[in-house]
Design goal:
homodimer, 175 residues, mainly alpha, 77% helix, 0% strand, DNA-binding, Transcriptional regulator, TetR family (chains A, B), Tet_transcr_reg_TetR-rel_C_sf (chains A, B)
Amino acid sequence: MDVDEAAARLLDTAERLFYERGVHNVGMDDLRSAAGVSLKRVYQCFPSKEDLVVAYLRRRHGWWMGSLRAYVAEHGQDVLAVFDWLDRWFREPGFRGCAFVNSVGELGATCPAVVDVALEHKRALRSYLGELADRAGIAGSHLALLVEGAISMAAVGGEPSAAQHARQAAEELLS
Amino acid sequence: MDVDEAAARLLDTAERLFYERGVHNVGMDDLRSAAGVSLKRVYQCFPSKEDLVVAYLRRRHGWWMGSLRAYVAEHGQDVLAVFDWLDRWFREPGFRGCAFVNSVGELGATCPAVVDVALEHKRALRSYLGELADRAGIAGSHLALLVEGAISMAAVGGEPSAAQHARQAAEELLS
DNA sequence: TACCGTAGAGAACGACCGTTCTCCGCCGCA
DNA sequence: TGCGGCGGAGAACGGTCGTTCTCTACGGTA
């Protein structure tokens, strides 16, 4: 197996395991065996666990924003489509809230790189939501509040309906 | 020092350290020395770290809800006072988001007791917000979304102004 | 065939952590 | 004074984890 494939497999596995269990609950050996990559390769691709965590978050940022953008674009850039996308996300098996919020809660105090990636993610999200909001005539910060609130409620409340409630609130704010 | 004082000191210290650094980043020995309690006493009061974590969350729940309720009561049960209280909380030094969200992100996958306490907390909060919302004529779920969203944005965005934006959104929903 | 760089498997290392155990000094009591 | 229980300090234990090292097998090249 060459380096690129090993790195890809590791990132796949890291994204799944870190998100499922939290970073502290996944050892390098768990990753190694789940990804089917030798430990030597692991450290060739990512010199430390922290590097792997940061790479995981960057990749997840790309997937998350990409998926949201694509869905909203398919629905005519309708700002309310954001909440439909959230609804689908919340109902996915294994949904465990925002990976960035979770990682900052776990590692933020000791690992500034994680905080940086999370900040970058949230800034990008808010900037994108700001664009959608401007077109629709709603305050960008209000839209962002509803989105973040829905994620938080779905995560620890276990209430996937949070997306629908947030959609209703957004409709009220639009009118 | 008797058992009760030792337990109280431990809880004080646990609340501070666990919240500041995250649970995994605080060892029993850190707690012991910061609280000035012998290790034997620690395990007399709390048979395991998990017990201490649960006790910490329960205590924080009491403090948090009590402080919010008291503030809102002082301000004539005005639903908007919730956001003023949040604003003050966000600006406290050492603010690091919702202790329950952080703990679930860190331990939720391995420790059901933590998930239970967090659920209990969120249910109590939503029930309280529901009462306030009913009186004011706004949907309880919308109010809860704004509150959760503000906490989340202030936590990882580092934007204490989230409380003010949420207040504005609530005012719009009220009118 | 002889050689060399590389890769994989997994042992080994050092640090840390939750928990338990040992030792010693102190106090009340006969 | 002698004794027995209690508390504190911290050593010790067992396990885990991140990281490095060792050993062996293999494939390409002269």
